[in-house]
Amino acid sequence: MHPPLPHDALTDGIVRQLEELAGHLSQADPRQAAQILTLVLDTKDGVLGRMLHLVATSAFVAQRYAETGVYPAEVWLALGRTVNTLGNLAIDHLDEQREALGRITAQAVHDTGSVKATALVTRRHR
Fold it and tell me: Taxonomically, which superkingdom (predicted)?
């Protein structure tokens, strides 16, 4: 069992680090951004995967407390739906994009030329 933490010290630290990561990402060059996004979008060991695990653990804890009447059942059910929705979105939409980002990272190391925008990006920004 973990010792009790001062009021939300662990949570506050994680929030600060996520804010720092977002700031770093916003200033990154294309190769660095692809590297960061690849790690963030990893549904197993990346930030998204760990976030899904945290929300799933939250649902488990909420279930335990809902079963004893301490939490409303709606809290547990909402967390369960959130885990399912995030997991499905990540698997259905983000896994293949993570692979594309990995290719960009590898290409950027070997190719110093500029990367051309895809037709989708070009159409959306005209």
Answer: Bacteria
